[in-house]
Amino acid sequence: MRILKILPGLFLSVFFIACMNSLQAKPFPDAECTECHGERGFSVPVGKHGSLGKKELFIDTHTFKDSVHGSSQCTDCHTDIEEVPHRKKGLSTVDCITCHEKLTEEDSIAAKKRNSLFGGPPPKRVVTYTNEYKVSAHGDQGIKNNAKCSTCHTAHYVFPSNDKRANTFRLKSPEVCGSCHEKALKEYRQSMHGSALKTPWKGDSATCSDCHSSHKVSDIKKLSAHRIITDGCGECHQNELDGYMASPHGQLAWHGGNEAPRCVDCHDSHNITHTKNDASPVNQKNIVKTCQKCHENANENFAQYHPHGTTRNFEKYPELWILGKGMGALVIAVLIFFYMHSVLWFWREKKERPVIYQHSDSRSYPIRVKPEKKHSGIYFQRFKWYWRINHWLLALSLMFLVLTGMVVMYPSTDWAMFLVPMLGGSTTLNTLHHWAGIIFLLAIFGHAAVVLFRIFRSKDFDWFGPDSLLPRMKDWEDMKGQFRWYFGQGKQPHFDRWTYWEKFDYWAVYWGAFVIGSSGILLWFYEDVGQYFPGWIFNLATIAHGLEAFLAVLTLFVVHFFNNHFRPAKFPLDTVMFTGVWDLEELKEERPEEYKRLKASGELEKRLVKGPSKQWNILSHILGFTLLGIGLILLVLVVDGFFTRGLF
Asked: Whole-model pTM?
């Protein structure tokens, strides 16, 4: 009975499959096709009575068999053939895309076989090319006479692009592309790139596909086209590309800055000539006029800017080389010293604060616990509210400067290209960076103004006393004592109000503010400055601005974070910059000399305050961990940028 129930369904399934098979194209052997198409000269008239000439239908079967599609049957592509001959309606256009989209390493054994036999690209790359073509300017088949796959690859003689028989062989691309882009071809033939193809013994030259790519061709006005062409130029002119991408021109243009010049804005596009040629826009005779296309007030001074300047070529850019190597040495020296300082400190403090293991009745093994800090419940005011607000403004503005600055310094990283549109594009990014810079400088120099005012108002201020941030001999002795302690040669020094590393942090901020601030102002007001100073001063400003910012990131978000938050005695967070207070026991441990001095003078009692509320303590931890997290994320991004592109 059960068999009788399923028989009707089985019968219907077989009937349905039979009907579907009857609707599919009939598999004709290639020999039936080549009886006509294999005859040289085989063609059909086009138009009424052949008024439009003839359409060539001959297929060279030997050449086809050598192509990457040589193992395919005619009906693999021409699936709409129902009978032979098919003179009345002809054949529909072959759908290359649908087939190529299915070529993956997993499901296409035939594709692998073709690749091994004929040397074509691997299946995954074919899929990539297909997807790139679909979203390219050529992929929009709604445009009349737009390029199809066969326009460039031909219909039947498809060979790997490194095969001279291929229509896509790079040296053939000018003529292939020029069949549609006639004006561009005419200009290209007259250019140094096009004329070089006639003298191959002088070296290789750029063709259409080298600059525009093969499948990612897009509207020349779009950002994607600029990036493709810029990378294409760099394939031959790597040093020039490095200099361009390290300059504000390349950095801002990469992110879509409409006012930032691109390669073609200075060098032209298809009719590029050598810089020594009087017709070149970047020839010394024409350079000022070329600069004036973007900078109306450009003069001889302004035009001395090095658009491709790098720190790697002493003969061509001596001033850039000297500054780059000098600041590079400073960066390396500072990082080596303070990273070593942090590692040794961690090792010694960890050794003197061993992990405690406690036995528990509920467990058969000891439980690992941290040594508890001593708490007195009495609080000492270290920073008043206005100093804390100043620190918050400084920290927030600096982090925002790093975010908006490093996406420009490392424009081609994935994270930079993701973040810039989120921040409103390059123009908005530039504005935000400037405002963050203003807040940063106001916080620093506003702090200096208040400190100086208080000092000069106090007639008995000791410029080299314990309350002064000026370096003194005790700092040198403390640093030597700290290193002796690191290596177990003595006890840790007793510090007073300010330690030597805090003074370094303090004055490093002013040094950084001077270098970053002055160079940033030069770059901000380049139009006015360029009237009176040689243009290469902007190259120097760019290098100084970037290297000092890089140093700031790798010291503040590593060394400063370690000194104040991550060393064992402080881990995971010191909230003093939010609460303004230390527990008295912490003061005794961290600043024993200050504690003794204040207690002896009777000042200690005046500095004791009520502790922070529970709510403010919780909020302080939330804010503190948030800022630390942001800083560490920025550090990771900058380190990634460094390993991706390096420094100038």
From this structure: 0.83
